[in-house]
Amino acid sequence: MIEGRNEMKIKMISGFLICSALIMLFLNCSKEKNIDDYTVFKPLHQSETGIGFSNNLTENDSLNYFTYSYLYMGGGVAVGDINNDGLKDVFFTGNQVSNKLYLNKGNLKFEDISEKSGVSGDKRWYTGVTMADVNADGFLDIYCSVAGKFTPKSNELYINNQDGTFTEKAQEFGLADAGQSVQATFFDYDKDGDLDVYVANYPITKFNASVYVYEQKMKTVNDVETDHLYRNDNGKFTNVTNEAGVKSFGLTLSATVGDLNNDSWPDIYISNDFASPDYLYMNNQDGTFREVIKEATSHTAFYGMGVDIADFNNDGNLDVFQVDMDAKTNKRKKANMAGMNPDLFWGVVDAGFHYQYMQNCLQMNTGVFEEGNPFFSNVSRITGVSSTDWSWGPLFADFDNDGLKDLFVSNGTRREVNNRDFFNQIDDAFTIESDKTLEMSMKIPSERIDNFIYKNNGDLNFEQANKDWGIEFKGFSNGVAYADLDNDGDLEIITNNIDDKASVFQNNSSKINNYITINFEGTSNNKFGLGNRVFVTVNDETQMQELTLTRGFQSSVAPELHFGLGQANKIDELKVVWIDGSVEVKRDVSVNEILTFNHSNASLENEQFNIENTIFNSNVKDVFPEHKHDENTFDDFKYQVLLPHKMSTFGPALAVGDLNNDGLDDYFVGGAFNRIGNLFFQAENGFEKKESIFLEEDKLSEDVGALIFDADNDGDNDLYVVSGGYEFSPKSKMLQDRLYLNDGSGKFTKLSALPEMITSGSKVYNLDFNKDGKQDLLVLGRQVPGNYPASANSYLLENKSENCIVKFEDVTITSAETFKNLGMATAAIITDFNNDNVEDIIIVGEWMPIRVFENTNGTFKDVSEIMGLNKDTTGWWWSINEGDFDGDGDMDYLVGNNGLNYKYKATQDDTFDIYVNDFDNDNKKDIVLSYYNEGKQYPVRGRECSSQQNPNIKEKFKNYETFSNATLVDVYEKDALESAIHYQVKSFASVYLENKDGKFIIHELPIEAQLSSINKIQVDDYDKDGALDAIIAGNLFSSEVETPRNDGGYGLFLKGDNKGSFKAISSSENGLFIPGDVKDIEPISVHGKKYIIAGKNNDFLQFIKYD
Asked: Would the pTM of this model clear 0.85, i.e. be above it?
């Protein structure tokens, strides 16, 4: 029958192309029109399209929210050409209404052929739908997923009879799955040439089920409460779930396929709801899969909904976007959305699941494939797509034809089942067995909200474009698909809405920008070419897409690939890579065409990969002994409930130097509270761990900083250890720093050579500020335990050692008076910023501006404002390093801030603030964090958390609704805020400080350097091109549970150019890969070879080699 399909399609396309030849000439000439002069989308009414489907819900005594909580998940959309006439048709599933199939008659007119085609269905609760050529006859079939409270629950397969009718044959084909299905995806997982299918199931589970319930169900998975993988065996489907390694319990809301590690084999991302963790199944190429979600991601969504997989940033790697239900507005965040319960959060983590947060996750594929597994960095915050309310179906596609994939997200819930006030007022006597379930269900509040569409501007920047693009619709949208319904070269959007007509948005982008559309004539059992990849190169920019049909939520798209091309009038190269590895390449391809590639024209090629040696080897195992930093357990939030992050997890201290006078680098790694630090001495065959008995008496102190230096000028190095942490009283002796004297052979003795410094510190640096030839010390104060964000003392210690008696004197008051109560200092650089051959100091910290101190005859003067650095530079600074990056002869600086990928945002107008005062008059200092939303300043935290610190908030705001409308001043009063200690951040960006004409000019580092906090910066000419480069590493894993961890960093190489600019080089290109909670990185030399040690909190040391 494939010949029939070809004949029909050839007739249609040839006619279409002949008619459109002159039109295309006109369009190509007219596409210089400004994109601002038209609207991308136009909503079409039923009277225009003939599409009148409405997924109406009718609740009753036996079927309502309290008797069937999955009532509002809605239906799906599938798009495909069911009669091979060249026009794409549309199918909708109904929950309580009949399914509908609309035949495309051209010009966006459709005919309802549901009844006569035989696909209306029966009384089943239909959910997801996908079109695929299940029986390999060249015609699309329709597979419907089924769930619901009542039976039958078996899925249905409508086989295309090639005459406009269908016959249900799920049982015959072995696909009558009865596992409470949500969706299915067809793909060739074993690459045997035919289509297999993965069925996503959502076992009925109480929404309030404990983590223990999930643990038990995951340990003993039954055959029904699992997703199912069916292998195609000569046209019949065999359940191979168990033998393929994908049998698992989870509340699956989507299963999406893509080759995530570029090995040409399809992998599967499973998005799971509630506490059940997501699963990432990597294809082992032998008919089995391995699950690697924790290895591949740093965290996932909590209430995982729909997923799309696409290369959104055109780097050749498939990325994963998963939606959740985090609201965008302050009101909906605080009135309707479930908060992150710390007990639930840590219960999930401690059960071995994953770190799961209530937010969308845009998992950017780093291109790093360790042991064949991809590694993703969640960039949803920096891209601005983290919060799209109660979301269902995300779709990446180039909606404006500019060459970048944009993003559409369907959302809305028919009833606000997380409305806190409503459920708080329900009488305790009410149960689901009562006769009032319908009445109560109908009283649950309901609010129509708009879907979200984002324009991709490139450089990890997405801009919401609903209004500008004319795609506003307030309602309850679930399933969504895109398709070029009118064959004009742009993508329409179709949504399945609850209690409303389906939406069809006509796209007009082809009037402005060019395009190419690709479809396939495949092999005998995969005629539409599922799994194929297409690479389109224009002006050295390559787009890549992979053909998979099931995308978003409960929906599927047509089997073709659409590429926007902007104003390009030709394609330099178009390469098709078939799933079997055969390749076809075309060059100098005309635009604005529909091209069909036939497998018979492709050939197997042995691609030549130029494997270049990378600068860095990040997986060194045989030189250094394994060592793990073991962090002690401590609940900081017990003492300050509204802390933004823990203050007790800043170790380990790390220092490198020659400790036994043999001319070789050794290293020290500090210990957490009640753990001792460790010394590692370099030997002939690597390193040996030395006994550290001398540290035993100080193990109750927490080691957060260390320095190897010659304290007594005797020619060998001594060891200074900074004590810090949050676990102690501010007056605890455990906060006293320590100095250990070396006898020259690596044996150390603790000295009483330091003044009393009862301060929780961070770092220590050596300098000779008075030029007497002795090494003095700068010691930074990090915090006052229990009193965040109180300023701590930093110290300037003068080396007064004489006649073999080691002594350091505190000269802070006389030589650096402003160091007292300096702030929450995190890092410093001993430098000469003004080229006067005297050591100056620059200090940075949390809630601190960048502070520059000029050394004038041994006294330090604050010249920050003179140098152009005022209070507006306040940030969460973590690191600083120097180099003459522009080659002008003076020192410039790189300064690491918290980054732009965190929940907390700040701009010049919409600042991020902290206020400290006794707001409730209980003689305790309270913390209040604030942010801006829609132009108004609000408390960051919700009513529940805020009232734990200030109980009177519950009295003042009797319910969540009133609190959700309350501004910062409404909650805490203007006078109390004005009298409070107040710090304000206007930017969290990490920066390059250019030293020019006696001022510092601030430049933001490249966007790739803003993915997380930068805790350490090292500077060197790593690529040996004569220009200084930098490597950065960081992350902040200790945030409170409503704030997702700052874990998007994985190390970055910034290539310098001697002109003050830096280019971010990808990890896949240079080999630098340092994930984890990195607190320090230090260079070390081993027998003439260069390495870097990375110290990570509560994790193993990592070792990186570079040439």
From this structure: yes
